[in-house]
Amino acid sequence: MNIIEIIALTKSYGAEERKVTALDAVTFSVTKGEFLAIVGQSGSGKSTLLHLLAGLDRPDCGSVFVDGVDIFTLKGDSLAEYRRRQIGIIYQFYNLIPVLTVEENVTLPVRLDNKKVDKKRLADLLSMLNLSDRKTHLPNQLSGGQQQRTAIARALFFEPMIILADEPTGNLDTNNSNDIINYLARLNKEFSQTILLITHDEKIASRAGRVVTLSDGKIIKDVRN
After folding, report:
1. pLDDT score recorded for residue 190
2. Could you give the count of Cα atoms lying within 13 Å of 85 in the half-sphere of its Cβ?
3. Buried-most residue among 74, 96, 170, 176 (CB within 10 A)?
4. 36 Cβ partners below 8 Å, 6+ apart?
5. pLDDT tens digit string along 136-167?
6. Taking Cα atoms as reference points, which of 164, 152, 157 lies closest to residue 110?
7. Radius of gyration of the CA atoms of the chain, in A
8. Cβ atoms of 10 and 61 closer than 8 Å
9. What is the DSSP letter of 116?
């Protein structure tokens, strides 16, 4: 079953001689429970693709269907709910709220949605990510790896259909990078979590079940590991 259908997705920036085509009629699908890595050099279109999938930007043309819904038909509250409930985003630089504790950062999306916090799910997530003894700490009291694990817990807390990970190891040392990829691989294997991992590191990408390579806004390779 395809959970994502991307059809002729095109996005350009600038005009006339300064026009840059970030994505050029990109088409591919992602099955439910797939662990997909998207690789390419800087400027290949990776981040543009992620922003479009997250509903943070709109294309010049083309469609993205998530669970059968064209996300570019969503507006206002519906689009906000899609971002909050269906998509979990893990950023390279964590994007944690500095004045909130680990527990408060993790549960923020649920509280913004006026939902009741599931204390058991929170405890289970913090335990899985080795953060139980850090739940009352502020981000500046955490290591880089702990901050990234907090960002993963936040992305997972709403039980999203899809996790979008944007260079999640780009700001970490080798040991912490390996830990983060191990957590993502475990989520995919044990819980059938659909994951799209954006990375420039082919070694990290090799941990995914499938690798799509972008160059100049086009897919030049699509390989299953």
Report:
1. 87
2. 11
3. 96
4. 30, 195, 196, 197, 208, 209, 210, 211, 212
5. 999 999 998 899 899 999 998 888 999 999 98
6. 157
7. 17
8. yes
9. P
Tokens (6 digits) for 42:
């800087």
Q: What share of the chain is helix, strand, coil (3-state, %, to 5)?
A: 40, 30, 30
Element (H, E) at 108: helix 102-112
In the chain the beta strands, taken as DSSP E runs, fall at 2-13, 20-31, 35-39, 61-66, 69-70, 87-90, 162-166, 194-199, 210-215, 218-224
How would you class 168 by CB atoms within 10 Å of its CB: exposed for 0-12, middle for 13-18, buried for 19 or more? buried
Q: Is the pLDDT of residue 85 over 80?
A: yes
pLDDT tens-digit readout, 34-69: 999 999 988 899 999 999 999 999 999 999 999 999
The one-character DSSP state at 157 is H
138: nearest Cα among 163, 168, 104, 175: 104
Helical (H) or strand (E) element with 203 = helix 202-205
Encode burial over 182-214: b for 16+ CB neighbours within 10 A, e otherwise: ebbbebbeeeebbbbbbbeeeebbebbbbbbbb
